[in-house]
Amino acid sequence: MALRVGVIGGGQLARMMVPAAVELGLDIRVLAEGPGMSAAIAATAEGDYHDAATVLAFAREVDVVTFDHEHVPQDVLRALVDAGVAVHPGPDALAVAQDKITMRTRLTELGMPVPDWAAVQDPDALQAFLDDHGGRAVVKTARGGYDGKGVRVVSDPADVADWFTAVAEAAGDQALLVEELVPFTRELAQSVARRPSGEVVAWPLVETVQRDGVCAEVFAPAPDSAGRLADAAEDLAVRIATELGVTGVLAVELFQTDDERILVNELAMRPHNTGHWTIDGATTSQFEQHLRAVLDLPLGATGMHAPAAVMVNVLGGPADGDLAARYPDALEAFPEAKYHFYGKAPRPGRKVGHVTVIGDDVDDVTYRARSAAAHFDD
Fold it and tell me: 220, 304 in Cβ contact below 8 A?
């Protein structure tokens, strides 16, 4: 009988686990939020992941439960564990990824390099932080933000007055996260994978380029990172995965500062956009590795197929919504590019797919990846 993996969430990450599962001979099942999700091709159930009974019924049909996102509530996660379900990553690890204040607290306790930060519940506390940090800072909602959402650069507490109102009206001890405005020269990401028995492997450090808070391009390996920088990033990510008990893929998003430090920005405990290049550029993709890890199978090699890999996201897509009409020209013009689309309707700013090119020369690879992706823009 094939090993059975259940994925909660029907987005593109679940969708991209499907080919890896098929190649490994795994039975993959997806609990999608509703019809028309990216992973509908593997969805065996639809339902609300906030509902413990729905999730438990889904989990009884699989050997391990993992996730397309980190938003499953803690009470549902702990109900799964109490019922004897193998959950990877587990509730304790996911709690760190679900709440940015918890994340900053745990990373600080572990002595990890992070931006200066504070949890603030009112405008006076935020003003005090601004006064101590040059009058500008980054404010984030503790939960729910992604792809630039829930993040604002502020110079006055009035810039987040609506968020303070929401904090005051929310049940429980709620707060906003405020951080120093980091003088970074570039953004980096280090992905690792860890299995429950403790084995950890890492892919090369990558450089990421954001556009309006959304990842637009990824360069593997990060230019001029070999040696001390790459070693430090890998050591940091491995330690985080080990200390937090992460199982599966962990992506650590980093700032490289103008004084050559690296600071942890965010954590993602699942396959991540910054690791999509591994599908075509690495011996073992992040999706295959995630499945191996959550099943506690030996992990795969992470070396690159070529000296350079560049991934470019297709953001928004054509205004007429017809991606397929663009396929012939793109595939003919750049037959060496690898195209991945997520079954999502084009919409401004939305990640509808990505293009990856690998090769020997990073400048040539970058040109070809950008040009191939541009076929799907207006």
Answer: yes
Structure tokens at 362: 């990073």
Helix, strand, coil share of the chain (percent; to 5): 35, 30, 35
Query: Tokens 């006064």 sit at which residue?
Result: 131
In the predicted model, what is the mean pLDDT of the chain? Answer: 95
Q: Give the residues across from 215 on adjacent strands.
A: 210
- Report pLDDT digits (tens) over 25-82: 999 999 999 888 999 888 788 999 999 999 999 999 999 999 999 999 999 999 999 9
Q: Strands 248-257, 184-194: parallel, antiparallel or unpaired by DSSP?
A: antiparallel
Any bridge partners for residue 275, and if so which? none
- The identity of residue 47, as a single letter, is G
Query: Is 192 in contact with 237 (CB distance < 8 Å)?
Result: yes
What are the Cα distances from residue 77, in Å, to 11, 131, 156, 321? 19, 40, 38, 37
- Residue 247 tokens read as 């199982």
Number of C-beta neighbours around residue 223 at 10 A: 12
371 closest CA partner among 332, 341, 333, 324: 333
Nearest-Å Rg of the Cα atoms of the chain is 21
- Give this prediction's pTM: 0.95
Asked whether the bond before 196 is cis by omega within 30 degrees of 0, the reply is no
What sign for the dihedral angle of Cα 355, 357, 362, 367?
negative
Question: Which three-class secondary structure state does DSSP give residue 9?
Answer: coil
Q: Which of 129, 172, 265 lies closest to 210 in space, CA to CA?
A: 265
Q: Identity (one letter) of the amino acid at 319?
A: A
Q: For residue 192, what pLDDT band results from cuts at 50, 70 and 90?
A: very high
